[in-house]
Design brief:
Distance between the termini of chain B: 40 Å
Order of helices and strands of chain B: EEEHEEHEHHHEHEHEEHHH
CATH architecture of the largest domain in chain B: 3-Layer(aba) Sandwich
Number of domains of chain A: 1
Helix content of chain B: 25-40%
Number of strands of chain A: 0
Largest sheet of chain B: 6 strands, mixed
Shape of chain B: globular
Strand content of chain A: under 5%
CATH class of chain A: Mainly Alpha
Oligomer: heterodimer
CATH superfamily of chain A: ABC transporter involved in vitamin B12 uptake, BtuC
Strand content of chain B: 15-25%
Largest interface: A-B, 27 and 37 residues
CATH architecture of chain A: Orthogonal Bundle
Number of strands of chain B: 10
Shape of chain A: globular
Structural class of chain A: mainly alpha
CATH superfamily of the largest domain in chain B: P-loop containing nucleotide triphosphate hydrolases
Order of helices and strands of chain A: HHHHHHHHHHHHH
Number of helices of chain B: 10
Radius of gyration of chain A: 19 Å
Largest sheet of chain A: none
Number of helices of chain A: 13
Structural class of chain B: alpha/beta
CATH class of the largest domain in chain B: Alpha Beta
Strand order of the largest sheet of chain B: 6-7-8-3-9-10
Number of domains of chain B: 2
Amino acid sequence: MSTELTRIIELFQLPFMQRALLGGILTGLMGGMLGSFTILRQLSFFSDALGHSALLGISIGLLIGINPSVVLLPFAVCFALGVTYLLERTRLWTDALLNIIYSSSLAIAIITLSFVGQYKGGLNNLLFGDILAVRELDLIFSAVLLLVCIVFIGLTLRTQMLLTLHEPLAIARGVSVFLHRTAFIVLLSLVVGISIKAIGVLLVSAFVVIPACAARLLSRTFTNYVVLSAGLGALSAVIGMVVSAAFNLPSGPSIVATQLTIFLTAMALPRLRVLGQG
Amino acid sequence: MKEVVLAVEQLTVYRETYAAVQDVSFELEAGTDTAIVGPNGAGKSTLVQAILGILPRQAGDVFILGQPLSRRGFLTPAIRQQIAYLPQNFLFDRRIPITVEELVGLGWDKLGFQVPWANRRKRRYAIREALARVDAAHLSHQLISGLSGGETKRVLLAYCLVHPRRLLLLDEAPAGLDVRGESEFYQLLYQLKREQGWAILQISHDLDMVRRNCDRVLCLNRTLLCQGIPEVALSPDNLSAAYGSEFVRYRHQH
């Protein structure tokens, strides 16, 4: 047991593991914070579609020979704004439309990738991410974005709350729904875009949705809910990384499994309390 | 002459392809209470929402406390802070975890960029006072999803009350309450109106309440059919013009 512990501690002394851990924490904090609003505004599926479609951005980057990391962020933002515009302009159901968008961009992305010979082996990494490949520049980017998220959400917290609760009430108070919606979507797409390298296109939305849902089950006030959601995002990243190091499991999926465990615990908690009293 | 809090000039609002409100003009003086009456689909909610900038208008002007409402619905924050709006049926997602205290606090905030802990003491004091005034202090830590209909209305009045306002726009504010709840709501509303000096523009279906309490009445059916003191505006002739003659016969028989 103690040798196992020593092995894990030694592992986390390696720079790439430290970067992975820090990257996980940053992503967990951002995903949790924005996620708390995302699920209440019923944009969960939107973040999922955004993640899946990011593969298209990556594959286009690979095809024309630009570093995918460079293409990804502008692609995610443009894509998100385009989809939002489309959703507002059409009379179709949001989830149906999002389904069309993400499955077709996934299909086109895979076709595009088939033209990029040397990347065929890397598909697994694109789908599930490679948190161990996080570099210093990625960390700096994430840290800056986290700061932007904290400042923006912090300074407009009350506006965000009223907008989430009741749009007409917010408009009556002079809040510009369009500006706030756009700003939020841009931030969300940046967070999704920046997290994709580490967690992959398939799992990225878990970081936005699962900690927020767990926090919702555990919170009695809105402010606590937002803070707790970010906290659970970071906590699950730490636990997930340790578990993945200890048992030599893939990191991204380990973190998501940890999020699920926390969520299930949050679901079971009231029932456990009742059992305890009975 | 009294100060004009709200002036609406030749307002026209289209919904889809038809004019839901056409060429409506009226003024609201400080501290007075005006009711908008009219049948379903007469454009009452549309009128109120256009005044607030929630719906865009196609023609006409709206002045709130002397300031014109821009085409895109802009008013300075200082003016916005002095208006409160209670929608018909305050429908919200009941899964949103927000407490009574937090909701009332949103009424106090200016909603620009500010750190969440700005003026913490003053804010908390204002919230506590407002909740106590509507007899809801004991609810402050409850989630709003757990409130009864009557409690929700009282908390919403605290949301209006928590910051000094000049103008209240109510879209059938007591909708969903039973007879007793409704009369309690109006009792509280008019007490607060006297204390706070609110000017009120409210949509109402309760013509007896309007007769008892309101200073002026606007009869609306797409266009403004008549306006004046309740005795005049709610005369049988004017009512039949607004609601149709069947309605007036019905009211006179009962």
